[in-house]
Amino acid sequence: MKVVTYSHARNALKSVLDAVVRDADVTVISRRDADGDAVVMSLDHYNSLMETLHLLSTPANAEALARAIRQDRDGAARPRPLIDPDTDRNGT
Fold it and tell me: pLDDT digit string (tens) for 14-59?
């Protein structure tokens, strides 16, 4: 995470935006005389965070994801073929 002043961000906005996209990181813009700082991140980074929050928003889904991660770490995960949306589950 990078921290820059408001003045720097204003004067170098293009390079600040280029850096957050290129580095897949966030930049905090600190504001000396304001009520709070701001965070700048790429849209991809933001969408990833929102998807993670959504997936973890229900206890059952969070547990299913945690179980899958444990299985993968324990070597118990196994690959499965993708379901073709143009066929039913029986392959027809």
Answer: 999 999 999 999 999 999 887 899 999 999 999 999 999 998 999 9
Query: What residues make up the domain containing 36?
Result: 2-41
Q: Residues 17-33, buried b or exposed e (16+ Cβ, 10 A)?
A: eebbeeeeebbebeeee
Within-domain flag for 90: no
In this structure, what CATH number is given to the domain that contains residue 6? 3.40.1620.10
43-55 and 59-73 helices, crossing angle to 10°:
100
Radius of gyration of the chain (CA): 21
Report CA torsion sign: 37, 43, 45, 49.
Answer: positive
Is pLDDT above 80 for 91? no
